[in-house]
Amino acid sequence: MYDVRKVIRKLRDTHRLDGQEYWQLLSDSDERDCRLLRCGAREAALSAFGNRVFVRGLIEISNHCKNNCLYCGIRSGNGKLRRYRLRKEEILDCCAKGYALGLRTFVLQGGEDAALDDEWLEDLVASVKTRYPDCAVTLSLGEKSEDSYRRFRAAGADRYLLRHETFNPAHYASLHPAGMSRDRRLACIATLKRLGYQTGTGIMVGSPGQTLDHLVEDLLYIQELKPEMIGIGPFIHHRDTPFRNESDGSVELCLKLISIFRLMDGQALIPATTALSTLDSQGRRKGILAGANVLMPNLSPASRRQDYSLYEGKASGGAESVEGLEELKEELQGIGYEIAVDRGDYDCGANIKNIKKCTT
To answer: Is residue 345 within 8 Å of residue 335, measured between CB atoms?
Structure first.
């Protein structure tokens, strides 16, 4: 029998656990233990970054996707979705709006859209970097060839987000169509790391068929990979997918995983995701207090936001949008945090102001 508090202290001090210890943490439901985990994670984030929360401008450049993943609302088989692709000028207009608001990272996200070829994406990245050389460009465009990743990096891309979703190959196969491979996904992530991207991966929590054993495999994989960014979001069903009747993932389990990952790597860039806010109106606040340090308000054209429909009821207004940036600032100030206007790179160092020590 494990003493869970000793396990939490071990993770805090050594930043790694074995599989059985992670399983014990995930299965423990004692609120005192959970509070100790959250407080330890919050203090780790405060020690590394101060009370700063990094804000990224999210631009959803296309909802076309060649893949037919069973959980995703923009899957190729969804004939009910109104498809779109943003023009380069529209994307640059979004960047201009974000830059004027103080944003210094742009996240260009989309499905695996074959119409957006390497030459077009290379030119887009170079154009953003030319106009805004003090900004970081993050891409989240799925699986590409090594040559493609190399070209985007040479054009100026700084970061790449590619969540592995689940490490277990059988579970991965149950979520994706034939032709997609967990091994290929992991190989892409390894390539991104090798090419010098600040690399992000992560987990879809509560996806159909997921077990605690699967999550332990995810934790051990990320522990060894040491990605600069870790994204954890709950599975949320979509009415136009085969998983339309499946239950949504657990907000509480997502928050626990955020805290575990924060103690695993105090320097990691960990977002409080839109999916958290979609399931829980306090999701942003809870995520930050659990150790997250990144938020990504939507910078896409307002007329397109509802069309980037990854899951049911996706939040895209209020503080989840750049129009709600003042609301977001006030919300963060209410819990002792402030928005950081710099790029917020991995290992950016602390800038501590007005920190209240977390108590259990």
So the answer is: no
Q: How far apart are CA 23 and CA 214, in angstroms?
A: 10
Integer angstrom CA distances of residue 138 from 45, 135, 235, 243, 245: 22, 10, 23, 29, 33
CA distance 334 to 22: 33
User: Which tens digit of pLDDT belongs to each residue from 261-305?
Assistant: 999 999 999 999 999 999 999 999 999 999 999 999 999 999 999
* Gap between the Cα atoms of 153 and 122, Å rounded: 9
Which residue carries 């069973």 as its tokens?
70
Is the pTM of the predicted complex or chain greater than 0.85?
Answer: yes
| CB-based burial, 70-102: b 16+ in 10 Å, e otherwise | bbbbbbbebeebeebbbeeebbbebbebbbebe
HSE-CB at 223 with a 13 A cutoff on CA atoms is 18
- Alpha-helical runs (H) found in 176-211: 182-194
| Residue 225, Cβ density class (10 Å: 0-12 exposed, 13-18 middle, ≥19 buried) | middle
Per-residue model confidence as pLDDT tens digits over 132-188: 999 999 999 999 999 999 999 999 999 999 999 999 999 999 999 999 999 999 999
